[in-house]
Every structure is written in structure tokens, then in C-alpha cells.
Amino acid sequence: MGFSRLILVLMLMSVFLPPSTPDPNDESCLTKLFESMEDPNHNLMNWTKASFENPCSGFLSNLAGATCNNGRIYKLSLPNLALRGSISPFISNCTNLQALDISNNSLTGPIPNELQYLVNLAVLNLSSNRLSAAIPPSLAMCAYLNVIDLHDNTLSGTIPPQLGSLARLSVFDVSNNKLSGPIPASLGNRTGNLPRFNASSFLGNKDLYGYPLGPMKSKGLSVVAIVGIGLGSGLLSLVLSFTVVCVWLRVTEKKMAAEQEGKISQLMPEY
Fold it and tell me: Within 10 Å of residue 186's Cβ, how many Cβ atoms?
């Protein structure tokens, strides 16, 4: 009986409580994000201006892939939708966002530095896209991050050591990118109670080295160095050959002059 009364009270509260007020930051966030992307398969047909003005009704949302919490967008899950374009920096306006999953699409461009303002973000999954440029060190400002999954992109540069300061980080994957340099010890060889990441988190980056991968590989001579050595050797051989020829011609010339002088002296009459 007590349980039934509790359910009744909750239902009455949901009826008489005033509706949550739309947040203009969420509207801006969703509008700019949608404008920055292309949706060729029309999976986001209900992402319209009218929906952005009031995206949440309590804990419910009419937007595909969006989840609300107390009238605010707190989760965006848009994987496998063939989305193109880029990630708008205005996504930072969704200040209550705790999970962002835009994996397995065809997004290009950099990871926005503005993600640092999503201070409640716990899950970031941007894997299997075509994102480029460097991993922003400012992601370390998202202190609640549990998951950073960036595998299968074209990210370059080094892995920011600042990410090792994320004490809650339990999943970290940057495999199959174009990263280079040493793996920060703060990520590759974590100590204490911090979760450790094995080699699978870093594989597929040919210029990445350090634990748990192997040491830096010797690259040997570069193509430019080999070409330079070849040109230098050729030039040196040419100079030596030219010098030898010049000396030979000089010696031959002197020898011929001496022989000619001898012949002339023999033809001179004696007085």
C-alpha cells in the first residue's frame, strides 16, 4: 500500500510541477552542431529549429540521439549515422553534457579545443571518423572523463602528457592514427590505483614509441640524406677527374714543349 501511495505522489508531482524552462545555451549548441554537419541519410529529420528551442521536457527529448536530465541535454549519442562535416566548437554550450558519442561517421577537421568547457563530460567517443590535427591538451580540464576513445582517425602530433592527470580515466584508445613521439609515462606507465593501458591503446601509430610499445626505432638515412650523399659523391668524383685531366694535360704540354725545343736546337747552324 505504501508503495502505491508513493507512485501516486510522484505522478501528482509530475503533473503540478511547472515545466522546465528551455536553456538558450542548449539551443545554440544543437543549432550550431547541426549546421556544422551533413546528414545524407536523413537520420536527424526531427533536428529542427522548433525542436532546438525546446529540446527537453523534463527527462525526455524528442531529438534523435539526445537524452535529457532535468530539462538539459546531458547525453548525445549519434554513432553510425554516416554524418559528414565537422564538430562545431559551439558544442561547449551544452554545459550539462556528460556523454558525447559521434563515433563511426565521416567527420573531418580538428577536435574542438572548446570541449574543455564541458566540465561534466565523462564519456568522449569520437572514434572511427576522419578527424585530424593534434589532440587538445585542454581535454585534461574535463576532470570527470572516464572514457577517451579516438581510435581510427588521422590525428597527428604527440599525445598530451596532461591527459595522464585524469584520475578517473579508465578507457583510453588512440590506436590507428598518425601520432608520433614518446608515450607519456603518465599514460603508458601509470602508478598507484590508476588504471593502466596496454599496447592495444597505442598500436597503429608508426612513429609512436615508449612503454607499453617498444623503444624508438632507428630510421636510418632519410631519402634526402641518401640523395645528398649521392650528389656529393658524384661531384667529388667529377672534381677529381677534372683535376687529373688538367694535370695530365699540363704534363703532356710541358713534355711536348721540351721535345720541340730539342728539335729546334738540332736544326740551328753552328758558327
Answer: 17
CB-based contact 136:111 (threshold 8 Å)? yes
Q: What is the pLDDT of residues 103-118, one digit of tens each?
A: 999 999 999 999 999 9
- DSSP character at residue 37: E
- Answer for the pair 151, 175: CB distance below 8 angstroms, yes or no: yes
Return all residues near 89 (Cβ < 8 A) that are at least 6 apart: 112, 113, 114
Instruction: Identify the CA nearest to 176 among candidates 149, 196, 197, 194.
Output: 149
Cell numbers given for 32: 550550431
Contact between 198 and 212 under an 8 Å Cβ cutoff? The reply is: yes
Residue 239 sits at φ, ψ, to 5 deg, of -65, -45
200-216 pLDDT, tens digit per residue, is 999 999 999 999 999 98
Comparing C-alpha atoms, which of 113, 23, 116 is closest to residue 74?
23
pTM to 2 decimal places: 0.76
